[in-house]
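Chain A, query sequence.
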Amino acid sequence: MEILFNNIPLPLYLIITIVSSFIIIRYFVNNHQNHPKTMKIGMLLLAYTGITAGITRLIIETKLFERHHEIIAFLPIPGIIIALPLLFLSAFSKKNHKLDKQRRKVMVIASIVGLMCIFIMIILVILALII
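Chain A, predicted structure.
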């Protein structure tokens, strides 16, 4: 299965993934008091995912650890699986803030769509392993 990011040249892919991850880390280290803990943990896990995605692509394209490519390809996935629910939880955990009905509906719909995307991604990974 070809993905859009597989067609990006390796140096550009590494720059995008690793630099964006370090930008996220720096932002949340500098502004740690402005956000809930679940959002900080979720964003740091997304930064972990970006770094491991870059390292994974580097290892696979340079043919290092050829016997372990299937295992190495799964390194970024736990970060995504844990980070997305944490980010959805952080949207609901604003202290001293009463949500109006319209905003609550939008957040619930966004959470449901996000969880569906996670489950579809997991199903696609399982199907890719089977096929």
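The CA atoms of residues 20 and 50 lie 8 Å apart. The mean pLDDT is 78.
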